[in-house]
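In this supplementary section we document a worked example of the pipeline. Step one takes a protein sequence of length 89 as its only input; no multiple sequence alignment statistics are reported here. Step two produces a three-dimensional model, which step three serialises into structure tokens for compact storage. The input and output of this example are shown verbatim.
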Amino acid sequence: MAYNPHNLSVLGYANGFTLWHYCTTDTADQVDSTGYFSQAVEMLRVGDMMMANCDTDGTPAAGIFLVARSSAGVVDVANLTRVGADNTD
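The serialised model returned by step three reads:
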């Protein structure tokens, strides 16, 4: 799939920093590919963080992406830092 701007929303903003939320059926590996968020280059700044729910229709993964690059029309986020642990019922 591809980036969906309707699934990106602001959770908070202060001092030039924005905390975002993004929800998608794409896997975390797809989302952290260079250029995935390039349509949002005008909004996303280096250092912004994004709470994310990925692969919501498969094996869900939740965590935080850090915007590592946002310039020259290209956005790149660092690999997902997972939140939570494996469920070992």
